[in-house]
Design a protein that fits this description.
This protein is α+β, with helices and mostly antiparallel strands. It is built from 3 helices and 4 strands, in the order αβαβββα. It is flat and about 35 Å long.
Length: 103
C-alpha cells in the first residue's frame, strides 16, 4: 500500500478509537482476480472490476468497526468505511462517521 495512504488510514483508525469506535482493517491491496470475484459474485460487493479499483494500486482500504469484541460487517454505511487516497482526509472521514453518532 502507498506509505502516505497507510498513515492516513492509521490516523483515521486512531481518531475513531479515541471517539469510542475502534476500527479494523478488512482489506487493503486486492489482486485483480479477487476484485473480479467481488464484482462478479452473486452478492456484488463492488461494481469495480479488476484494474478499475484503487485497491489494486494500494490507494484504498476497507475498515469496519469493532463492537463488543466482534467485527461488525453489514451493508450499512456506518458499519463499513471505504477509504481512498483521493477521498480520504482523516478529519473528513471522522466527521462523516461521527455525524451519525453511532456505529
Amino acid at each position: 500500500m502507498d506509505p502516505a495512504f497507510v498513515q492516513d488510514v492509521l490516523r483515521v483508525m486512531e481518531r475513531m478509537k479515541a471517539r469510542g469506535f475502534p476500527m479494523v482493517l478488512l482489506e487493503g491491496f486486492r489482486s485483480a482476480e479477487r476484485q473480479n470475484r467481488l464484482a462478479g459474485g452473486s452478492t456484488k460487493v463492488t461494481q469495480a472490476k479488476g484494474g478499475e479499483s484503487k485497491h489494486q494500486y494500494g490507494l484504498a482500504a476497507d475498515l469496519a468497526p469493532v463492537r463488543g469484541g466482534k467485527v461488525v460487517i453489514s451493508g450499512s454505511r456506518m458499519a463499513r468505511l471505504s477509504c481512498t487516497r483521493r477521498a480520504l482526509s482523516a478529519s473528513r472521514a471522522v466527521a462523516m462517521i461521527g455525524a451519525e453518532g453511532r456505529v
